[in-house]
Amino acid sequence: MKKMLSLLTVMAMVFSLFSGVAFAANSDDEQVNIDENGSNEYQDYSRAASSIVSHDNRVDINENSEFTVRFRSSTGARIEEGPVKFYINSSRDAEKVELVDGKEKDLVKRDGENWEVRIDEIKNGEVKFTVTSSTPGEYDITLYRDGVKSGKIDSAKVRVNASDSVDKVTLEIKPDKVTAGERFTLKATATADKWEVEGAVIVFEEKNDRGRWVKIGTARTDKDGVAELRISKTEIGDHEFQARWDKDRKVNSNETVEVKLGDIDKIVAHDRTKFSDIKDSAFNVWFAVYDEFGNRVVVDDKDIDSIITVRVTAPDGKVYTNEDRDIVELTMDLDDEDETYEMFQVKVFQNKIDEDGKYKVEARIGGTTLKDSTTVTVSEFGKLSSIEIHLDETTIRKDYDADEDGDLYARVFLVDNRGMKKNYDIKDEDVIFSSSNSRIARVGSRTGLIDIRGNTGETEIKAYHADTGFEDSVNLYVAGEPEDLEIKVNIKPGNLRGNVTLTMVDEDGNRAVQDEDSQKYNIVSPEGIRVSDKRDFKDGSASFSIRADEQDIYSLRVISDQGLTKTFKTDFTVAEVYEVIFKIQDEDGKSLSNAQVVVKAREVDDEIEKTSRTNNQGKAVIELEKGKYDYTVTRENHLDYQGSLKVDDDITEEITLGVEEQEQEVKTKTIKLTEGKKTIEINGQSNQMDSAPIFSDGRSYLPFRVIGEALGATVDWDSTVRSVTARLDDTTVVFYINETVAWINGEKITMDAAPYLDQEVGRTLLPIRFIAEAFDANVTWSAQTREIIIVK
Question: SUPFAM superfamilies, from UniProt (predicted)?
Answer without folding.
Answer: Copper amine oxidase, domain N
